[in-house]
Amino acid sequence: MSQFSSTFTAASSVSLPPPSFYVSVSKRSFIYCCSSSQSRTTVVNGKFDGKIVERDEIRFGLPSKGRMAGDTLDLLKDCQLSVKQVNPRQYVAQIPQLSNVEVWFQRPKDIVRKLLSGDLDLGIVGLDTVSEYGRGDEDLIIVHDALKYGDCRLSLAIPKYGVFENINSLKELAQMPRWTIDRPLRVATGFTYLGPKFMQENGLKHVIFSTADGALEAAPAMGIADAILDLVSSGTTLRENNLKEIEGGVVLESQAVLVASRKALIQRKGALDTTHEILERFEAHLRAADQFMVTANMRGSSAEEIAERVLSQPSLSGLQGPTVSPVLCKRDGKVAADYYAIVICVPKKALYKSVQQLRGIGGSGVLISPLTYIFDEETPRWRELLSKLGL
Ligand SMILES: Nc1ncnc2c1ncn2[C@@H]1O[C@H](COP(=O)(O)OP(=O)(O)OP(=O)(O)O)[C@@H](O)[C@H]1O
Ligand SMILES: O=P(O)(O)OC[C@H]1O[C@H](OP(=O)(O)OP(=O)(O)O)[C@H](O)[C@@H]1O
Ligand SMILES: [Mg+2]
């Protein structure tokens, strides 16, 4: 575990990632070089300057390994975008349904770095990774902020024992008189940008950060740190290492997001159309994933009367209201409608309540089917994206 006392103290004006990262470092700026198969781009302060490098394909970065990799491929598959990878060690792949897209498998942090350097155009990573490695860069645009997997939070944790036994909030931690300039609070984290920023924003003055690549939860018991700032999801790792989260200590709630380079969306031919298609597919699938389609028959005198009854029930309003259609049969030689069929979408979590309400207003023969996609006229996220791009 290495310490970066000079660059990572919360009180200092700059906080930079490990120096090995740079070709040259000065207090306020850094330059490093980043190569790609088709270009060599000079990157200043994490950004590439000027126009994008010409190429025909849209490059889409997906996590090459780790917990995001499998779920990302599953999401794409559920959206009928199957990624054709010849073998798991090959880092380039195709999506047959998107002929102008080239998939590149990369580590999540490298996806963000390569979006900034112009070597990727689109990517899927956790919001934590975008926030840490993107550092608020305006070129990064979150196109979809809730892909519904990779849920976790970046949270500060301290030991349950010893001097921390009665400390349960960030405020109490900050007010402990033991933290001084000579003996600051020692925090172990992989989040060397967000960590100092959070401490500074919360007025913790005497803090020093150290970093390591994993198993940070061991640091307090090893005597290396007083606290850790790391991702938490089930809380098991914290619990097993005798650590606890504290009130006010959550830096960020994270899940998988679709992120794009603003420059690519504006300048690269086809990038915006492709992003629109991917966004629509994601939205349609994710909207459908938490809904069921419910059909039922109901006796009544007219479609309007049936609709009145259905709409009087809070769980039965559907997406835009119920579809009501007559069930026509022949009676005394004439075609008549004694029954009406209704079709509505209901949230999965309200399923049983909806069935009870349907029965309560005379519904019978209730059928429930899963939904695959719900395509709306236009998704709000698409309108938001256009407005972020000034289009
Ligand atoms: N415990 C967790 N539960 C749910 N999601 C998590 C959890 N830990 C991490 N994630 C999400 O998955 C992403 C990738 O985490 P993963 O553990 O696969 O890689 P990593 O440890 O960050 O990367 P590397 O192995 O390259 O250092 C994280 O950025 C975060 O968004
Ligand atoms: O709250 P929990 O469900 O216990 O998950 C939290 C743990 O998951 C992540 O580690 P990971 O398993 O990715 O190992 P790593 O330290 O090698 O990254 C994170 O860094 C925590 O250690
Ligand atoms: Mg991990």
Automatic annotation (TrEMBL):
Principal cellular location given in the protein's record: plastid
EC number per UniProt: 2.4.2.17
Any one cellular-component term (Gene Ontology): chloroplast
Domain Histidine biosynthesis HisG C-terminal positions: 288-372
Gene3D superfamilies hit by this protein: 3.30.70.120, Periplasmic binding protein-like II
Family in the record: Belongs to the ATP phosphoribosyltransferase family. Long subfamily.
Protein's UniProt name: ATP phosphoribosyltransferase
